[in-house]
Design a protein that fits this description.
Strand content: 25-35%
CATH superfamily: 7,8-Dihydro-6-hydroxymethylpterin-pyrophosphokinase HPPK
Number of domains: 1
CATH class: Alpha Beta
Number of strands: 10
Shape: globular
Largest sheet: 6 strands, antiparallel
CATH architecture: 2-Layer Sandwich
Structural class: alpha+beta
Helix content: 10-25%
Order of helices and strands: EHEEEHEEEHEEHE
Distance between the termini: 34 Å
Length: about 170
């Protein structure tokens, strides 16, 4: 049995468009998983950060997967590490990063584990998640929150600009 999962992608270091393109290529190689949709890229200002940093490039990819949520998360974190992502208590929250892959939705499931919460707990507060998500899934509903198109109204003041994508050769 397979499930459609939505992954939020973001980067603001080391050629962000290229980082997103490399992440998409890596996601295409995840076992028991295939890409079914990919949003355009968007440029967005960093949210809630204490340090000056460059804008982010963000996108959302839809995957059809038969992996369990925790297994999918392990693959996402392995892709982040392979692309230079640093995690740990010494890395400040919302700091610049080469790649951030967030499991936003896993079908209609609600998952509450120490290392994973689905739906992503802050996705409804972020235009950089909702805008590309709605590009590829206009009728998507966030469990316990409602239709994503309705949630987007609350974030319409956040700056988000569609931008070009990087194509790997």
């Amino acid at each position: 049995m397979s499930t459609v999962a939505f992954i939020g992608m973001g980067s603001n270091l080391a050629h962000p468009r290229r980082q997103i393109a490399r992440a998409v290529a890596a996601l295409a190689r995840v076992p028991a998983t295939r890409i079914v949709a990919l949003s355009p890229n968007y440029a967005t200002a960093p949210l809630a950060c204490d340090v000056d940093q460059p804008d982010y490039i963000n996108a959302v990819v839809a995957l059809r997967t038969s992996l369990a949520p925790k297994s999918l998360l392990r693959h996402l974190q392995a892709i982040e590490r392979a692309q230079g992502r640093e995690r740990g208590s010494e890395v400040p929250r919302n700091s610049p990063r080469t790649l951030d892959l967030d499991l936003l939705l896993y079908g209609r499931r609600i998952v509450r584990l120490r290392q994973l919460t689905v739906p992503h707990p802050r996705m409804h507060e972020r235009a950089f998640v909702l805008t590309p998500l709605l590009d590829i899934a206009p009728a998507v509903t966030v469990p316990r929150r409602g239709p994503a198109r309705r949630l987007k109204q609350a974030v319409r003041g956040q700056s988000i600009v569609r931008t070009r994508s990087h194509v790997l050769h």
